[in-house]
Design brief:
Elements: E1 3-11, E2 21-29, E3 35-42, H1 53-59, H2 63-66, H3 72-83, E4 88-91, H4 95-109, H5 116-119, E5 124-125, H6 128-138, E6 147-148, E7 151-152, H7 156-163, H8 174-188, H9 192-199, H10 204-212, E8 217-220, E9 223-231, E10 242-250, E11 258-262, E12 282-285, E13 292-295, H11 298-301, H12 306-321, H13 323-335, H14 350-353, H15 358-369, H16 375-380, H17 385-398, H18 405-419, H19 438-448, H20 455-470
Parallel strand pairs: 1-4, 4-5
Antiparallel strand pairs: 1-2, 2-3, 6-7, 8-9, 9-10, 9-13, 10-11, 11-12
C-alpha cells in the first residue's frame, strides 16, 4: 500500500555530516491523508558530538531527555526501516533542504544505504514547504498567512499558530511539528487540483515529462533552450518567490543535474570574463526534486514583477546578440566539477566517495547481522577502508566496551581534534566546513547567554557549559 510518511527531526546542530538526529517523529497516512500509525524515536547524544547551544535552546532537549534514548546505531536502523517501508512517500516541512540531508548522512555513517528511501520499492520524497510557496502565489486564501514586518512568514511555527494547526505541544518538538505539517497538508488537499499538481513535481518521471513539454524556448545557433519559471521561497518576497529561467542543458559531470540560469539579474553576460562569479545565478536541479519549475505560460508569467520580466527580456536579447559569450558561460557551468577535498573526514564523505559497491554492501549486511562482540572481527575484514573506518566508529560510538585498540586510536584522534583550539586540527566537511569543536561551541554559548533566556533555557545552557568542559 502506498502511504505518506510525515516526519520531522530535531538535531544537535545544523551540520548533517557531523551533527546527529536526537529525535525522530512520524505520522503515516494513506493517500487520502487518513492517519494509520505514529512513531517516535529518541537518540542518545554521541560521545563525539559537541552540542550546538543555539540548537538546544530552540528544541529544549536536555541530557535527561536524551539519556533515555537508543544508541544512534540502533535508532538509525529503526528509522531506516520506517522510511524504507515499500510505497512510502517521505515528506515534511523543509525536509528536502534539512531533515533529508540528516537522514542520508545518518544512514551513511551507520552503514545503511543512504538513498533507497528515495527510489527503491516504490519509495520517494516530497516536501510541503514548496507547496506553501505555490499556494501563497496561486491560492492565497487557503490559509491565514502570518506576517513579519509586512512580509509573509513561512515558518511552520508561525503558520501553525496563526491557523491553530496544533492545540497542544510546543514548536520545534518533533511530533508537534509533524502534526502541524500533517494538518497543513490536509488543508492544502482541500484544493485537490492544485494539490495533485504540486505532488507531481516530486515524481521524477512526471516532472521530466512536464519540463520536456515546455513550449516557450529560444534558439541560439541551432540550439534550443527551454524557458521556464522557477518558484522557490529562496528567491524572496521582493521577487514574489518567482524567477524567469532558461535551461542551459545538462551537466557533463553529473548526469542527473539540469542547469537553469536565472534571467532576472542585471546583464548575465557580464560574467563572461569570469564565469565562476555567475555561480549564484545557476540552479542545479534534478527531476522530481527542488526547485519547482513551471512552464512559461502567460497566466504564470503575469505573476512575475514587471521589473523582473523586463530584465529577463533584456537578457534574452543580449544572449541572442552575443551568443559566443553566452556559450562560454554555458560551457563553464556544464563542465563544472565540485572540488576534491583531500582531508575530508569519513563521516562527511558520502558525496565524494559515491555509492556503496556490491562488495561493501555484502560486508555491511554481515556487520549488521553480527552480534555486538562479533562486529569487531567483521569490521577488520571489510573490503574497503572507508566502510572499515565507519564500522570502527560505529563500535566506538555505540559499543565502546567492545572496541578495538585500532578503533580507539582512530576515534581518539578525531576526539583530540574536537578538543584542540587550533584551526589546523579541524575535522573537515564536504563543503570545506568543519565539525563543531569545543572552542567554537564555547564561543557560541557565550553569545547565546547574552540573549533573553527563560529559566528552562538557562538551565540547558548551564548543562551545556559543564558538558562541553567535560569533553
Amino acid at each position: 500500500m502506498n502511504t505518506y510518511l510525515f516526519y520531522d527531526v530535531e538535531t544537535s546542530g545544523l551540520n548533517p555530516a557531523f551533527d546527529q538526529i536526537l529525535t525522530f517523529a512520524s505520522i503515516r497516512t494513506d493517500k487520502q491523508l487518513n492517519e494509520i500509525e505514529r512513531n517516535s524515536v529518541k537518540i542518545q547524544l554521541r560521545p563525539d558530538i559537541v552540542p550546538s547551544p543555539q540548537a538546544f535552546i530552540i528544541h529544549r532537549l536536555t541530557y535527561e531527555d536524551l539519556k533515555e534514548g537508543l544508541p544512534e546505531y540502533e535508532a538509525v536502523k529503526r528509522i531506516h526501516q520506517i522510511v524504507n517501508k515499500p510505497g512510502t512517500v517521505s515528506l515534511g516541512y523543509n525536509t528536502l533542504r534539512f531533515d533529508d540531508d540528516f537522514l542520508r548522512f545518518s544512514f551513511y555513517r551507520n552503514l545503511l544505504d543512504p538513498y533507497t528511501h528515495q527510489y527503491s520499492k516504490g519509495c520517494s520524497r516530497m516536501d510541503i514547504f514548496p507547496f506553501a510557496t505555490l499556494y501563497y502565489i496561486f491560492c492565497h486564501k487557503i490559509i491565514d498567512w502570518p506576517q513579519n514586518n509586512g512580509k509573509p512568514s513561512f515558518k511552520l511555527e508561525k503558520i501553525s499558530e496563526q491557523n491553530s494547526l496544533v492545540t497542544s505541544g510546543r514548536a520545534h518538538e518533533a511530533m508537534t511539528d509533524v502534526e502541524a505539517t500533517y494538518n497543513l497538508a490536509r488543508i492544502f488537499a482541500r484544493e485537490r487540483e492544485i494539490f495533485n499538481y504540486s505532488v507531481e513535481f516530486f515524481n521524477k518521471q512526471k516532472d521530466k515529462t512536464r519540463i520536456n513539454k515546455f513550449e516557450k524556448s529560444i534558439n541560439i545557433k541551432g540550439h534550443t533552450f527551454k524557458l521556464g519559471i522557477m518558484v522557490s521561497h529562496q528567491l524572496g518576497f521582493d521577487n514574489q518567490y518567482m524567477s524567469p529561467v532558461i535551461n542551459i542543458g545538462k551537466s557533463t559531470q553529473y548526469s542527473n543535474q539540469n542547469l537553469w540560469l536565472n534571467l532576472d539579474n542585471d546583464n548575465v553576460l557580464s560574467f563572461v570574463s569570469n564565469p565562476e562569479e555567475s555561480m549564484p545565478l545557476i540552479v542545479r536541479k534534478r527531476y522530481g526534486d527542488l526547485p519547482i519549475v513551471l512552464p512559461a505560460l502567460d497566466r504564470f508569467y503575469e505573476k512575475i514583477k514587471n521589473e523582473n520580466r523586463e530584465k529577463a527580456e533584456a537578457n534574452l536579447k543580449a544572449i541572442a546578440n552575443k551568443s559566443d559569450d553566452f556559450f562560454k558561460i554555458v560551457t563553464f557551468h556544464k563542465e563544472f566539477k565540485y572540488p576534491y577535498i583531500p582531508d575530508l573526514d569519513p563521516d562527511a564523505a558520502l558525496y565524494q566517495t559515491g555509492f556503496f559497491n556490491k562488495h561493501e554492501k555484502k560486508d555491511m549486511t554481515d556487520f549488521h547481522n553480527a552480534a555486538p562482540d562479533g562486529k569487531i572481527k567483521i569490521a577488520e575484514q571489510m573490503s574497503t577502508e572507508r566502510i572499515k573506518t565507519l564500522a570502527r566508529r560505529i563500535i566506538q560510538r555505540n559499543h565502546p566496551l567492545n572496541s578495538l585498540q585500532a578503533s580507539n586510536f582512530e576515534f581518539d584522534r578525531m576526539m583530540n581534534k574536537i578538543r584542540s583550539p587550533g584551526t589546523e586540527d579541524a575535522v573537515m566537511g564536504y563543503k570545506s566546513d568543519t565539525k563543531l569543536n569545543c572552542k567554537d561551541a564555547s564561543k557560541e554559548l557565550e553569545e547565546v547567554l547574552k540573549l533573553e533566556l527563560d529559566q528552562e533555557q538557562q538551565e540547558i545552557c548551564n548543562w551545556l557549559q559543564a558538558y562541553i568542559k567535560n569533553i
